[in-house]
Structures are given as C-alpha cells and as structure tokens.
# Entry
Amino acid sequence: MIRAIRSIAILAALAGNTLAASTDDLEQSFNPYRNGYPKFPGLAVGTVINKDNVEQFKDAIDPGLYLAIKKGWQEVKVGPTTPLPVDTAKLEATRKTLGKTRLGPKTGDIEDYGAGRPFVEEPDLKDPRAGEKLAWNFKYSAGIGENATIFPFYWRYRDMKTGTVERTLKFSFHFLKYKHRTHEPTPEITPNPSNVLLGIYGRVLEPIDLKNTQLLIHRYDDDHKIDDAYMYFGFQRRVRRLATGQTTDAFLGSDVMIEDFEGYNAQISDMRWTFKGSQNLLLPFFNHSELSLANDMPAETDGYRFVNFAGYGGCFPDVTWQMRKVFIVEAEPLVLNHPVSKRIFYLDAQSMHISRALIYDRRGELWKIGTLGKSHPDFHLPENKGAGTPIDDAFSAVDVQAMHCTTGQFKGRVDAATNRPSLFQVQNMRGD
# Structure
C-alpha cells in the first residue's frame, strides 16, 4: 500500500500535478516582499560594486556580472528595492483558476489555463517540472503588458575594445497578445482563426540601406506549433518566410538572435527546463526618471531621454541595480545542431520577467551576457503609470568571446491604440 501511494505521488509530480495552490501562494507570488525586502551583508543603497570589492558581494550577483565587474568592464551602483504595483486584473484572473492549471504529459502541454499567472506555488527543487512551470509563467508575463509599442528603439553595434559605434539602427517594435488577455478586449481578440497567442512586428526606420526591413512573428497558442516568422526586405520588395533555423542566426548582423528577444522568444517544448534554485540577487531594475540619462542622444519632443550606456566599450546600461528575489532556470535545447548548449535565465520572482541571461556555446563555454533593464512603470512615461508591469528600458548583448556588443535604448509604452490587429498581418508588410 505504501509503495502504491508513493508511485501515485511520483506519477502526479511527473505529470505536473501538485497540491492545489492557496490564496496565500497567490499573494506571495504577486508580492514576494510583503514581509520585507531582501538584504545582503554590507550591501546598502548607494554601494558601488567594482573590481576592488566584488569578492565581498560575489554571492549577491550572477556569474556573468561577477565576470564583467572582476575584469573592470563595469561597475554597479545599488538602488533601493521598489516592489512593482500589482496588476489587479491579472491577479483576479489568476484567482479564478487558482490551483486548476496543470502541466500535461509532455513538455509544452498545459491544461485548464485561463489567464493570469499559471503557477503561483513556490518552485521546489524536488519537483522535476518546476523549471517548466516557471517557463510558462514567463511566457504569459513577458513584455510590456498585452499591447506594447517600443518607438523609437535604437540599436547600436559596438566594438568592445575600442568603444567604436559601428552602426546604429532605428526601429519601431509592436507587441499584441491575442489570447488569455486580462485587459479589454477579454478573453481574446477576435477573429483569430489561426489561434495566434502573440504577434510581434518590427520595422527598421534607419539607416537607409535597411529602411523598411520588417519582421513579423506569429506565436501560436499551441506551444508545439512552430512560430511563423516573416521578413520583408525593402530593396527586394517581397516578403520571405523564415526557415526555423534562421531564428538562431544573428539578427541583422547584431549580437542578438530572434530567439533572444525578451530573454527567450521560442517554444517551451524546444527546451529542457531545470529549476536551479531561488536566490536574492542584484537585478537591473530601477526608476527611469531618477537615473542620470543619456546626453549623447537628443531628447524626444515630450522631453523623454534614454538610458545611458557606460563601462568598457560603452556596452553596459548605466542604471542602478536592486536586490530582488530571483528564480534561476536552465534551458537546454533539445535539437543537437542548436548553436547554444544552454541558457541560464534569471527571472524576477514578482514579475516573472527575464532580466539577465547567460548564454553558453556548444562547447559549454560562456558566450554572451544578456541584460534587459527594467523601469518601474510609475517612474517612466505618464501613460505607463499604474501598468503593473516593469517597462523594458534598455538592453545589452555582450559577446565575451568576440569582444563585441549590441545595445538597445527604448521608449516603451503600454499602447492599445496603435497596436491594431491589422498591423500584425502579412499583407501589412507589403503596404509600403
């Protein structure tokens, strides 16, 4: 009898079924700082971590950040931990299906999910599918809300050794969540005959040789269905469908793959997910309006100024970092010819956003350090106030092997008016 009970418990765990989540789990998931903020000995607001004192704070930073500081590439200034405002619509949507959502038999299967955060229970190292559950939480939480515009969006390609800016691209990017919505229209945008979960549309505005190059991605609600991705090249005046492998090529000659967008931009079923533990670590979360902002770029007409970059080669966002609760997840590609052997993701426990990613090459050696800086929405554009989600504000992808980086400076906003469904159709790419 005891063996039978144990067998049932093991099978339930392998199938992703655990004890039902409680209201306390829900509250803790959305507000992990309700009982106090994380601390680390000797680490106070205003502390600057550099190569002289980095050993003292090694356990408060991820290995990629430790490497960069140890080499003198960057310094980190500590800011106060500022919990995010809770998105009440997402909270209530999560409450409606609390404890009902579960994983299916295969990676990439999810059952009885409605909207909000699928899994609110504290991840457990003993749960073999804890990493997969966190991946689902990220998938349904990533980005600047359910309707987002990033414009303008400047990418700079930099030689890390000389600091030379080799190329600057100006984009507009748009994101629209079609299903599992918590803000109007709910629960989904119709008509949606292809069962699309997310639309991503990007367009190059400068320089002239790439102007009007466009990218369109349709991610489907069925995680086992491969994304449809399309590119439009202005000089060819035609739309080309991207082959699956092209999402792991360098995007427009940058240090970024399409698969790297937002930290991870592909199917959950493509990876083997392993939860590596929880830790209090420094993450690049900050209040945009309180930073020393860039002076080498003109302010927008509304006065908005972009995040500054500093450090070796100008490759690192010049922002403050907060001590935050972090979930560490390893993702290993299931296909053998993938250019990456694994990624280590650092998920902010409150937002479930990926803010740091370490990417390892096929030999298992550190290849790239990814940083996605996040601003508190109440210290950003007025229209973002109260958004209940961190605002993507700057990124860097540092190739530590080639000593090269790509940096990004954003003006991101929650924007339901601009992101009409027609913007995310292939025929729209041919419009100009």
Remarks:
- Residues 296 and 308 are 8 Å apart (CA to CA).
- The longest helix spans residues 2-14.
